[in-house]
Amino acid sequence: MYKVIATDLDGTLLNGDHQVDPFTVATVRQLEAQGLHFIIATGRHYRDVAGIRDLLGIRPYLITSNGARIHAPGDAMIFADNLPPAAVHRLVHPEIIGTHGRVIVNLFADQQWLIDRDAPELLRLHQDSGFTYEVTDLKQHDGNGIAKTLYIGEPADLAEIAANLQREFGDALYVTYSLPDCLEVMTSNVSKGRALKQVLERLGVDASRCVAFGDNMNDIDLLETAGHPFMMNNANPDLVARLPGVTRIGNNFEAGVAHHLRKLFALDGELAS
Question: If you write DSSP's letter for every residue of 99-121 in order, what string do you get?
Fold first, then answer.
C-alpha cells in the first residue's frame, strides 16, 4: 500500500491562482492523520514553501529549489548544494542573459530572494506565503550561498539563454523549465528525483510505495523515481511527450490532486476508477 505522497506545487497542488484551496487542505490533513507521509517538491524557495505548508496544516518534508535544499518536518535543513560562485557570476552576465533587458534574473539564497528589478506582478504567485524579493545589483553579488538562478521571460529569450548555458557549461549545471516562462539553473548534483530518493531512504520507504504528482519539465525525474507517478491533465505537452506512459489525472485548477488522492485512498466514498 502507498506510504508516501510527493507533490509539486504550481500547476499541480496549487489552484489556478497559485493558492491552496479548502478541499485540498481537508484532503491532505485527513491523509496525514491516517499516517501518510507528505513530501512537497518544488522549484520555490524554502521560506515561500514553509508558508504554504503552514496553510496546509501538515508536516511534510520540503524539497525546494528543485532539490538544492531539503528540510525535515521540524524545519532542520538536511541537505544543501549551492551553485559555484564563479558560475553564479557568469549566470548573471549579459553574455549569458543577453543585453536586451527583457529577462528578469533572480537568485535564491538560504533566506533571500534576490531580483534584478522591481516586478510586483510576481508577488501574486506568493500570496499565501507572503514571501517577497529584494531588488539587488546581482552583478555585485559575491556568488556564495546561491541555491538556484531563475530566469523569467518569453520562451524565445529563455531558449537563447538555455543554448548559452549549454555551450558554456555543458552538463556541469542542471537546467530545466518549471513553467514555459521560467528557466531554472542549479548544480548538476541536484534534482527533485534525487532529493526524493534521499527522503525515501530517510523514511525507510521503498519507491514502490510512493505516489507522486507533477506537471512540468522539472518534475521528470520526480515522476520517474516514484513507483506510482501521476501527471496533471494541464501538464506541459513536452512532459506528456517525454513520459507518455504516466497516467494523467484532473487539472490543478479543479483540485485534481485532492480528488485523485480521495480516489486512491477511498476517502468519503470515492473509489479509484
Answer: SS--SEEEEEESS-EEESS--GG
CA distance 146 to 68: 9
How far is Cα 117 from Cα 22, in angstroms, rounded to an integer? Answer: 34
Spatial separation of the C-alpha atoms in residues 125 and 1, rounded to whole Å: 35
Q: Cα dist. 191→119, 182, 184, 229 in Å?
A: 27, 16, 11, 16
Q: Which three cell numbers mark 7?
A: 507533490
**Average pLDDT score over the chain:** 95
Distance in angstroms (rounded) separating the CA atoms of residues 2 and 210: 6
Q: Under 8 Å CB-to-CB from 114, ≥6 apart: which residues?
A: 106, 107, 108, 133, 134, 136, 138, 141
Give per-residue pLDDT as tens, 187-242. 999 999 999 999 999 999 999 999 999 999 999 999 999 999 999 999 999 999 99
Asked if 152 and 123 count as a contact pair (C-beta separation under 8 A), the reply is no
Least Cα distance to 5 among 46, 69, 56 occurs for 56
Q: Mark whether 8 is an active-site residue.
A: yes
Q: Which domains does the chain have, with CATH numbers?
A: 4-80+190-269 (3.40.50.1000), 85-187 (3.30.1240.10)
Q: How far apart are CA 9 and CA 40, in angstroms?
A: 7
- Residue 149 pLDDT > 80: yes
Q: What is the pLDDT of residues 89-131, one digit of tens each?
A: 999 999 999 999 999 999 999 999 999 999 999 988 888 788 8
- List the catalytic residue out of 8, 128, 219, 221: 8
Q: What's 195-231 look like in SS3?
A: HHHHHHHHHCCCHHHEEEEECCHHHHHHHHHCCEEEE
